Amino acid sequence: MHLLISADGTIDDHEVKALELVCQRENISELFFDKFVQALRGKKERELFDTAIDRINDCNDEEKLRVFVILYKLAEVDGRVHHKEIKLLLYTLRLAKIEFEDVVDKALSSPALL
């Protein structure tokens, strides 16, 4: 999530609020999230990306789809989808063997983040 929302070079208030809502909906405690963010500090973008792909590939197809729907909705929450967000999303979808159309279809039937 961090890579995606920071792909355009900024993390705005809408993205922060949406991320907080995702944590609430997914029952991710503030303590767990804070430890997660701390673990990311100082890591290079490539290392973050490789770790994210490894974690995604530990998921079953339904879980992967759910993750990508959240990422898709996070990408659009600030009112614009930056080309770097699209590139990152499409590349990770390919690596995870998930179809973009499946993500879009599921996202359209899922509640908005904001």
Structural description of this entry:
With 114 residues, the chain is an all-alpha fold. The protein has helices spanning 2-5, 13-25, 30-40, 45-57, 61-76, 83-96, 100-108. The chain has one domain: TerB-like. The chain is built from seven helices and no strands. The longest helix is centred in the middle third of the chain and has 16 residues, at 61-76. It starts with a helix and ends in a 6-residue tail after the last helix.
- What's the number of extended β-strand segments? 0
% residues in beta strands: under 5%
Query: If you average the pLDDT, what whole number results?
Result: 87
Q: CATH topology, anyone?
A: TerB-like
Q: What percentage of residues falls in helices of 4 or more residues? A: over 70%
CATH-level-2 architecture: Orthogonal Bundle
Reading the helices and strands in chain order gives HHHHHHH
Radius of gyration: 13 Å
Which segments are poorly predicted (pLDDT under 50) over 5 or more consecutive residues? Answer: none
Q: Please report the distance between the alpha carbons of the first and last residues.
A: 16 Å
